[in-house]
Amino acid sequence: MSITKHNWTKEEIIAIYNKPLMDLLYEAASIHREHHDQNVVQVSTLLSIKTGGCPEDCGYCPQAARYHTNIEGNDLMTVSQVKAQALRAKSNGSSRVCMGAAWRNVKDGEEFDQVLEMVRTINKLDMEVCCTLGMLTENQAKRLAEAGLYAYNHNLDTSEEYYKEVISTRGFEDRLQTIENVRKTNVTVCSGGIIGMGESIEDRAGMLVALSTLNPQPESVPINALVAVDGTPMENEKPVAIWEMIRMVATTRIVMPETQVRLSAGRTEMSREGQAMCFFAGANSIFAGDKLLTTPNPDVNEDMKMFETLGLQPQKPFIKIMQPKTVEAEDSQYQPLGEKPKWSRPGHTIERNLEASTKGK
Fold first, then answer.
1. Of 96, 175, 247, 262, which residue is the catalytic one?
2. What tens digit of pLDDT does each residue of 96-124 get?
3. Is 278 an active-site residue?
């Protein structure tokens, strides 16, 4: 049985990534079979509960208010709307609902209270609940945990060095602090990144160093291929080759053997054969549904046909960690503190982000 290692170096990870492909696949598949059922893949549904209008300047994101991407924004969904979507997702084979809001950070108040009620509602449907809401404090993490949250997603996006070329409105350390706040609860951590943003292999390895040296390592690591959206600073980036995706998945599996590796954004550009190789290399989770927040995603019926062809089964909920209990709002031990944390604003200039924000004005 391979042992989880927490002191990977960038050089070690680059060496793994650059192995002859057949050797890399064999090693990754062997480790995957040691720690997971190779014929089971988790199906999650990603739901944008509040779309557009984000104040951040992430170079990949069409939801940033400063870019001109024709994204149709919406206010926070109601609890009943979210419940209906969750029931639909469950009927289509999803065991987890991931709710995303285009916020910089969580703010105490009516909207966060509404999100907490969404978490309670979905957990009572016997589905895993994940949220991605931006930075959050320890008290806010505890309130989410009390409501029944199973996982919190907060991607590192890329290496600490390349992060400064992607985002200028927040610092890399804020990501790590939010993950640390989540770790003070029983909520699992989901954190990964995006390849295809112009980064080097060294940057991809640097991201995996940052994730794998966390102790414990994240229970879930999404690997996204950039979906270049018109109007964003990265609109002209070339699509990621499937071989790069396979290598990234395999390397992630070797470096984080017990983690659920999520084959996330960019699947619409991948053939079934390419996705099959990613599953063989250690991916054991996908997002189903026609959209991932705002970008296209394969139809759920097509995914189920692919599962049938490959002999894959959807994972049942709460296999890795037992279902959290839901505490009702009136019984909560944690009250809103009205915190105003000073999350960083590095403020340096990223030329392509600046150009995209002024284009079309």
1. 262
2. 999 999 899 999 999 999 999 999 999 99
3. no
